[in-house]
Amino acid sequence: MVIQSKSLVSTSPGPDPVTSIAEERANATFDPVDMHAVIEGSPEKAQKILELYQSLERDPILAPGYHDYELSRDENREQTTARIARMTQYVENEPYEDFWRRLNLMTVYDPSLGIRISVNLGLFINCIRGNGTEAQYNYWCVEKESRHMKQLWGCFGMTELGHGSNAAGVETTATFDEKSDEFIINTPHIGATKWWIGGAAHSATHVVAYARLIIKGKDYGVKTFVVPLRDARHQLMPGVAIGDIGSKMGREGVDNGWIQFSKVRIPRFFMLQKFCKVDRSGKVDLPPLEQLSYISLLQGRVGMASDSYRICARFITIATRYAVGRRQFKSDQREDEKEETQLINYPLHQRRIMPYLALTYAMGLGTDRLERQHAETVKTLDDAVAKKNEKAIYAALANTKSLFVDSAALKSTLTWLAEQCITETRQACGGSGYSAYSGFGKSYADWVVQCTWEGDNNVLGMSAGRTLIKNIQTILEKDIKIKGSTAYLSDAKEYLNRKYYLKREEQLTAIEALRALEVLIVRVAAAAAEKQEKLESWDAVSYERVLLSKLHAHHYLLETLFLATRKAQKPEIAYVLSKVTKLYLLTNVLEAFARDFVSYAVVKPQLSLAISSKLVPESCLEVRGQAVPLVDSFQQPDGFLNSAIGVYDGNMYENYFKVVKTHNDPTKTKAPYSLDLEDMLNRGSIQSRARFENDIEASKKLSS
Amino acid sequence: MVIQSKSLVSTSPGPDPVTSIAEERANATFDPVDMHAVIEGSPEKAQKILELYQSLERDPILAPGYHDYELSRDENREQTTARIARMTQYVENEPYEDFWRRLNLMTVYDPSLGIRISVNLGLFINCIRGNGTEAQYNYWCVEKESRHMKQLWGCFGMTELGHGSNAAGVETTATFDEKSDEFIINTPHIGATKWWIGGAAHSATHVVAYARLIIKGKDYGVKTFVVPLRDARHQLMPGVAIGDIGSKMGREGVDNGWIQFSKVRIPRFFMLQKFCKVDRSGKVDLPPLEQLSYISLLQGRVGMASDSYRICARFITIATRYAVGRRQFKSDQREDEKEETQLINYPLHQRRIMPYLALTYAMGLGTDRLERQHAETVKTLDDAVAKKNEKAIYAALANTKSLFVDSAALKSTLTWLAEQCITETRQACGGSGYSAYSGFGKSYADWVVQCTWEGDNNVLGMSAGRTLIKNIQTILEKDIKIKGSTAYLSDAKEYLNRKYYLKREEQLTAIEALRALEVLIVRVAAAAAEKQEKLESWDAVSYERVLLSKLHAHHYLLETLFLATRKAQKPEIAYVLSKVTKLYLLTNVLEAFARDFVSYAVVKPQLSLAISSKLVPESCLEVRGQAVPLVDSFQQPDGFLNSAIGVYDGNMYENYFKVVKTHNDPTKTKAPYSLDLEDMLNRGSIQSRARFENDIEASKKLSS
Cβ of B444 under 8 Å from any chain A Cβ? Predict the structure, then answer.
């Protein structure tokens, strides 16, 4: 037995994950820095992101740490508040675009911070910009400095206890009082209580309240009103009742609150009046373009799609490094090796995590495209509106339709997939994945609300799917081509009439898979259209609508991935990207929707079985060879990953143990409740505890 | 506007979920009490469970409450300790079987408590019983009273930092010192640190340590040793280093710890020696029946399968009641209704939750069967061993093989399905599902470790699947019939050679679905067998092995459900059970594995599409009609569900609001950190904060 001292004293050789990781890097066929630029869309954006990572990992208040995984609710909120205060300095000092990128990156490790600021700067201010006049925006956001998180803190009062998804159904009332030229904001019953309002419990000074405009007994539908909640001393305004909504599954750093208004009076001009206007006499001027007001909500959806990419990148990085460093059992395919087999060399393990690696690439490229599409669409529309060019406005609105479909499909599909990715990568790290210090637990709990808020995933999916079905109906009935992101539906007739069947392995190229996906979408949509017409119900085809939304999202991603591969300048990058694309299309597309591909006669059953039993394992193995450089390419540093088992150098056991010991003082060998435990173990007999009342002697006395 | 005062003052009518729930109950076609007896296997067991619920909901310490969702780690552990202390009174006073039933029920709402006690009374004591001599069991468990959670507290030292699933690979050593007649327990390096050991951090006085038996330089493999960790004053023994493993994703009430042994000496007879014996001179007597020692681990697996049923019952009850009480939007299928549409009346919502309702029935009946199978198998074996009847022992071992396959397949498949069920039912409750007070968040975080521990699901699935493939190989090569729970494989040749094709809707009866499932299993297993033989690797068919394990689990459940329906005495029970069975087989079986059914030519593609687009919606609708009585039949009382939105009377809004206000004092209108917030909002200008050093005046001065 050789005793040796390195970082620790060992009496026999222990595991050596560091060497395993180093070997992987030695075999890299490409430079992760090059790949990073491809994933992020440009070298400039990639560099900006790294600069921000550096700034964040150094910042004493903004930098994440393992202690973040141990905070109580109160501590969490305190920390978030300190981080917000720190962020106000950045919002005043760096370009707005950089500030948002910083916030988006921080959202990966501190989603509570992300949403607290996003509700204020995103929802609250976007709502004023989208629904208010220029003067109203200037007053509330510029003059009052709320856009710099100063003086005012705004929250977003849409959801009620009784109404979430159906925002048009909210029941808070804003009744015009002609006498005083005021609106009276009122919560008529418990169901209309504003609920879940982020920032309301403790932070907000103002809310944009969604309320029914009532004038002379007539209900004009839901409009938006700026309502002060707290005065300059941060005391609740009269008539305003607010409380903390309490503990949540995650995001404990957010002070979500409930709000009840009891006949709260606000001046008429606190109503946001870009579109709908109410004059002094209560006359209502209803807008022709009120739909424009909803575009401001799209930023959130686009952001959540991007969040999905970054959170997947984080956890697939951790799980891949763990799979390389961790050895367990001996594979019967590696009997020549001395040591136990690395998890990543098991076919099943590859099949569990490699598809998520490929998916993350598709997400990265796809959401970069979505971000650009969003920026362009908004800019075109803003320009047209600024020029008051009605024709240009309507032209721009056509683009927003594509953006609605794409962002709805991608937000819902990607947030769901990210939920699955966190779950599967956590399980792939075994027990270590259950430790708070690996990062999975908190992130999962924080993440999953993304599937519910700002458009419940099923509601969004149904909405995107409905558009696809309507497009198909238009194409088939009117025989016209359509434009925008669903233009591929225009070939519907051909796809329906001509036999299209993938039969052979050689056909499984990216371009053919894209085509196959289009054929499937057309066939599902056409069948759904028929069913919808027959049953005269859209609800009857809701399942098909969500399915179509998912397929459309994958079409968007696959198309982007395919184009990026073709555009890649370095051959070694193009080569590995083509392998990633292949894996993505085999697993996330052809295998995930295999039943539909087979049943709608797009893929032959035999080929589908071959995909599962032969092609997927082969493709996983191909990507596995470059797995470490592929995750290194996400360029997320240790301080950002914040995972004891996911460190860059692979030294996971020593690092994990050190974190455990640092955060749980081993010199305290007894728990604070140890006396209770000891007392319990050392308790007397049942008889003595019953004061011997049940003994034979007592029995004798009692019966005598 | 009518103002009225009921429980609260409303200025217009609010939501009325209570009436909605009452209407559902009025339409019940059967008595939930009858159904409860069917699900639990007998009226006696059903009654026992209700008595235990009553005892628990009254017990001041054991009863759950909403405060449970807000505990810090320290508070959680303190509460768990208090509950353990309370449970010691029950373990001394009620029949052991009742005590375990009580503990299993409590595990649904307090899994930390469940596992803390299970590690001690289950793993620790079962390990001594399974591996130790009768004298050893009597000494450690009876004389020392550990079976009553007294004097000693045992933990289970199998897992190490470097070895989890591969228990045979643990690296802790137990070296025999002939001179002193002792074993020296040693942790040679960091990888051999005992890790995750439940109860080690603070509670345990002893551990059964899995360590390599080393005698005269020879490694005899992993054996078990009782090692004292703490002395009678609860101080750590010399050479024993223990620490808290820290924060986890869930189960924060458990004091998981790490243990390192530095040459810790124990007497030779602390080694458990039922099978493997070491005499005074170091001679080793190796056992012929060491495999018997693993049977004691099966109790945990059976328990986790049962846990899956009860946790699904809890959340499907909550989600179903919520879906009845919650109204949102207006379905285009219910335009005649005045109010918005109840979630449960949307086809998509039915499709999201009804399949889990059917699954829960299948789980309930299936795990009751598994519990009985386990009890019988253990009893038969124990009897044979007691009689030292070797022939009877070998006969009993054949039964244990079935139990190994069934419990592995059911533990892995059902814990995974339960994970999905909690996720989907939570999402089906929208934002309310994210509130801690609805119960989903804590339960999810507590639950998911079930997929990892006591046999990682993929490892267990591979194990069960391997047996199925081996069985098929035996059947096909040797042309013999097999017995036990995989007897249905005996028809393999017929299933492979004869064409078997479900084409028509009328064929989709339970008995035909069971047959179809058998045909699919046979075909998947045969294809996997061929691949395994060709590639000479079991790892190459790991994906197929896990698939087979899942299919076998569903076969077990479907068979049980089918038989229970046939056996049901009351016609109204049989009728509704047949509907539940139909929904289960359509969704959880035929749709969940649709690709395989179609590609292996068991179900026609057209029929598969019809299942999805027509039969599943129809079947969901049928079950939806009795959804509330069906979940009432689980008979879980409000105090046990512990969900603000899942209460029996359906009064979810008022109840939820009351819970929020009770647990978050609204009179505290400012947060403890409010001054930081106010200071941030009311900060001075950038210029003033920079002491005007960047102003023009300063610039002039500095440049002059």
Answer: yes
